[in-house]
């Protein structure tokens, strides 16, 4: 089973969150600071060769292992326990209602029995786990349980990558749940803890934008759109005749010709703002909700100059670029000036690292 519970014991040994995405691997290690606070001890990233990970699937295990080993050496961490993430699209989740008062082994039997109704694969082909959410709305005699299932080979690919890098995978989480855990810390810092606020999160990745809308910490809407930062890289390739890898590197460093901002970047920003606006309109027309109170941008594209202002102008919603480390102390190995521009890309890795603290 996917282990959601193994870190809830004593000690909270050092653990790092590892986010394997299409374009890079990101790592975050957190420590405790006081009773309820956290300290960012280390964070780092390592680019992946193009095609090593496609649509969340590990296509070249060796390349990913090599990148993770480089990342670990670069980060300077001594942590060997890791929390890994599974892409949301690779995991089937379902809320089910079961009788209250069952023992753990009885719950497992009931969950497996229920799972066969919702999973389109043989149960011996999946990794299956569950988490008790709490009392069900139907009454005190029932509980609500979240069922999670993923194809076993997809889970084993990520486990094999960690183990081949000398690491011990201890927790496997769902990337969207990890992002939500990191977001919850930020919304808790809003006035009145964000109570009653409808919060939208747009994670603009390399190929896909993940959209989540939450009310009082509960997800009320989720969607993916095929739009991401690789479109900007492809435009750089087309306009300047660079290889894809060179275009990606120069996009990150800002080493591009004078006309880049007007000819390439601005059209991409306009497209990004349009995607956000369309997604919000679709949310309004497909749900009972007619407002969003706070919008957060995350992912590597979130810090592109001009995007925040453009999205704010188009949507007329209070909008911020999210830093999952907001309100945390910073360890001696962390450079604050560098963190400011890189933090929005570490939302999932930060949420995974928070699993150290249950």
UniProtKB/TrEMBL annotation:
Encoding gene per record: pilM
Cited InterPro entries: ATPase_NBD, FtsA/MreB, PilM, SHS2_FtsA
SHS2 domain span: 15-183
Protein name: Type IV pilus assembly protein PilM
Gene Ontology annotations of biological process type: cell division
Superkingdom, natural source: Bacteria
Lineage: Bacteria, Pseudomonadati, Pseudomonadota, Betaproteobacteria, Burkholderiales
Pfam families (UniProt xref): PilM_2 (PF11104)
């Amino acid at each position: 089973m996917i282990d959601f519970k193994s870190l809830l014991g004593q000690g909270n040994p050092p653990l790092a969150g590892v986010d394997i995405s299409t374009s890079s691997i990101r790592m975050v290690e957190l420590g405790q600071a006081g009773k309820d606070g956290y300290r960012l001890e280390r964070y780092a990233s390592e680019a992946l060769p193009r095609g090593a990970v496609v649509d969340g699937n590990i296509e070249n295990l060796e390349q990913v292992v090599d990148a993770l080993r480089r990342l670990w050496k670069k980060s300077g961490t001594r942590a060997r326990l890791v929390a890994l993430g599974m892409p949301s699209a690779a995991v089937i989740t379902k809320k089910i209602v079961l009788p209250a008062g069952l023992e753990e082994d009885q719950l497992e039997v009931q969950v497996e029995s229920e799972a066969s109704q919702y999973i389109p694969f043989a149960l011996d082909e999946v990794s299956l786990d569950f988490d008790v959410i709490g009392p069900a709305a139907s009454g005190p005699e029932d509980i609500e349980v979240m069922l999670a299932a993923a194809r076993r080979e997809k889970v084993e690919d990520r486990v094999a990558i960690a183990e081949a890098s000398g690491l011990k995978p201890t927790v496997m989480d769902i990337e969207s749940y990890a992002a939500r855990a990191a977001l919850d810390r930020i919304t808790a810092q809003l006035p009145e803890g964000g109570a009653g606020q409808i919060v939208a999160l747009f994670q603009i990745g390399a190929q896909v934008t993940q959209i989540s809308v939450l009310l009082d910490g509960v997800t009320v809407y989720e969607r993916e759109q095929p739009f991401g930062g690789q479109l900007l890289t492809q435009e750089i390739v087309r306009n300047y005749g660079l290889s894809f890898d060179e275009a990606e590197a120069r996009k990150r460093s800002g080493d591009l010709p004078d006309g880049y901002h007007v000819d390439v970047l601005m059209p991409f920003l306009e497209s990004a703002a349009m995607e956000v606006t369309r997604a919000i309109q679709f949310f309004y027309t497909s749900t009972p909700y007619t407002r969003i109170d706070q919008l957060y941008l995350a992912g590597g594209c979130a810090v592109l100059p001009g995007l925040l202002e453009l999205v704010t102008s188009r949507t007329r919603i209070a909008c911020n670029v999210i830093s999952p480390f907001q309100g945390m102390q910073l360890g001696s190995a962390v450079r604050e000036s560098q963190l400011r521009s890189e933090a929005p890309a570490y939302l999932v890795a930060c949420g995974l690292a928070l699993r150290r603290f249950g």
